[in-house]
Structures are given as C-alpha cells and as structure tokens.
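This section describes the prediction task in plain terms. A model, or a person checking by hand, is given the sequence of a single protein chain and must write out its three-dimensional structure as a string of tokens. No templates, partner chains or ligands are provided. The sample shown here is typical of the held-out split.
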Amino acid sequence: MDEFLVRALVGGIGLALLAGPLGCVVVWRRMAYFGDTLAHSALLGVALGFLLGIGLNIGVVAVCAGIAVLLTFLQEQRKLASDTLLGIVSHSTLSLGLVALALMESLRVDILAYLFGDILAVTPADLAWIWGGGVIVLAGLALVWRRLLAMTVDEDLARVEGVPVRWIRLSFMLLIAATIALAMKIVGILLVTSLLVVPAATARRFAPNPEVMAALAAGFGAMAVLLGLGLSLQADLPTGPAIVLSAAGMFALSHLVPLRRTA
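The expected answer:
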C-alpha cells in the first residue's frame, strides 16, 4: 500500500476514535448546531494562522476556543434564542474568514481543501498532531465524562448536586474546538460535524449504556473512514465527502437491522 494511503488511514482512524465519544455527548445534548458554528469559525482561524504566522492548527484552536467562550457568555445573557445566536455567529465567522483570506493578495490557498478536507495529503507531522492532540482531548473528556452525563440527564439536578455546570459546558465546547482543529485536514470545516454526529447516531440504536455507545461510535467512524477511502480510490471521489457518505450509509442500513426486544 502506498505510503500516503497508510498515513491517510492512520490519520482518519485516529480522528474517528476521538470523534466517536465526543459525538455521543453532542447527540445526547443536541449540540450539533454548536459544532457547526465552531467548525465554521475555523476558517477564520486559518486566516489568523496565515496572517500572524503562528501555524494553522494553533490559529484554528485559538479562534474556536474564543468563539466557544463567547457563545457560552452570550447564551447566559438570554437576549437571543440559541438557534438565532448560533446562526449569526456561524455564518458571520465563516464569511469573515473567506473575506480575510481573499484580502491577503500575496497568499494563494486551496479553499476547497479547508472546506472539505484533503486526507490524502496528511503528513507525518499531521499524524503526530492528530494522535497526540487526540490523546489529550480524550483525557480531558474522561475527566468530565460523569459530570457531562449528569448534566445530560438533568442539568438543574446536576447543579444542585454541586456540578459546576458552566465550567463543564465550557470545557466540553473547548474539547470540540480542539477536535475541529484536528479534523480540518481529514474531512474539512464543512463536514467535521457530520463525523461527530452520524457515527454516534448510528451507535445509539445498538448501545445499552453510554460507554458502549462511545465505543461503537468510534468503531463506526473508523469503518466510515476505511469505506470512504476505498470509495474515493475506486470511483475517484473527493475523500472527505466519501467518508461522510459512508457514515450516512451505515446510519441508513442500521435502521434495517431488527433489534431483539426483551420481554
């Protein structure tokens, strides 16, 4: 197997193992639109990385983290409905990122690679970033996992029991921000939320408890990466969209599988 394919597969599986558990919480807490908003803001992070020369991944993490803090603050003000606020921030940051890149006349970038990913161009440095950053993000998720579950069941009860709801919510949004930075090279800014949500939604049908659902979501994500790479090579398809379509196909097929029902 060609070396670039091995790197693509290793990078994609690393992302799937990270996105699965995080995606479960996104599905439980109905935060898909939050993920979209943070993902769209990543293009502004790309522009910031080029402008300041600090590296694209650092720029994306910085901007996504800043947007996560801003969203947490604005939601607590309750001056706008959440979906309205997210819609404004999402499209404003995406448009600002596109405009900022267009104004850098000396810079020539492949916008489509950032929007839809370029997994076949993953480098050894990208693999180190994905796997090293993924371990840190999963460690952070493990630290807040039980409190996230408590908040998902009943946020008010969790607050009464002493769970620092605001800080746990913010911590989780920062973990999503870091994941978006890691995923940008694999599936792109516009598709990253799909890799969070679709495998988790597929796993939800078969999982008896949260931990099993997280493991199944990671497995379905890894299968989507493998199938998407295969489809891309055989049919000459764009790889990021092929991975997402593979995940969507597994979700559709999962509803054709009859479940055993206990009496």
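For orientation: The mean pLDDT is 86.
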